[in-house]
What does this fold into?
Amino acid sequence: MRTILLAALFALATTGTAAAQTSQQLHANAVIPDPPPAAPIADWTNAKGRTTTTLEVNGATLRGWSYAGADPKAPTVVFFNRNGTTIDKNDATYRAIAALGPQVVTYDYRGYGFSFGIPGVHLMQEDAVRIVDTVTKDAGARGVVVYGFSLGTAVAAYAASQTTVVGVILAAPMASAQAELLVALHGSGVPANVAANVTAAPDAVAAFAVADFVGRFQAPLLVLHGTADTDVPIAQGREVYASSTSPRKRFVEAPGLTHDQIVNAPDSRAAVKAFVAALTH
It folds into this structure.
């Protein structure tokens, strides 16, 4: 969230005295890149261990991939990406998760990559509910684990609060719009007199309330966070973990890891493997 917000915050910083004297609100969709990241549709193909999948949702066509898992008894993992990326950039990540046991299903967000539609954070969250419901029907008794990274934690946690899942994995989760906005303002160079008047708009508060979302489900929870994460500091991950009332939850603190390193770190993969194995029937 922080890196995409920088352009919006820079705009506030350059509006001068008027901005300093006027309350400014940042909306949820301020995190959407302009233009959204694209991917050549010719690259949306089947490959060894990977098949294309499509889902029609309200006003959009979502295109994704499904990866065969190493263990046919394991639950299916539905992976929600960080912001500003597309599924074609992360093929190795999905394959690595599938090698741990579960089938992996992932889609580009609407308006991103191979998917069609106008992007919007709340719409992404509604799409996530449809995705999870659809994948759950295919998974049957194996069930679905939602796995979100960075911005994807707001999508995954929201979906888990609205559907039935057997597990939730959150990597580098933000706790709230308010907490992350303070981090972004501090690190962006926005003058203090401007920053004092910047707040999260109500739609952003609702969209990024990850700590609130996790309090709404009892599914097993795994939180992964690096101690060197400056984009979303680990204190936010701890707040998310503390907000969960799940009887089965685990927090994995990764010493020295940054935001970008957390998902593919060996310790994270080991934690994900153990988490999925405990849910496998």
About this structure: Residues 56-112+122-180+207-279 form a domain with the Rossmann fold fold (CATH 3.40.50.1820). Strands lie at 24-26, 50-57, 60-67, 76-80, 104-107, 144-149, 167-171, 198-200, 221-226, 249-254.
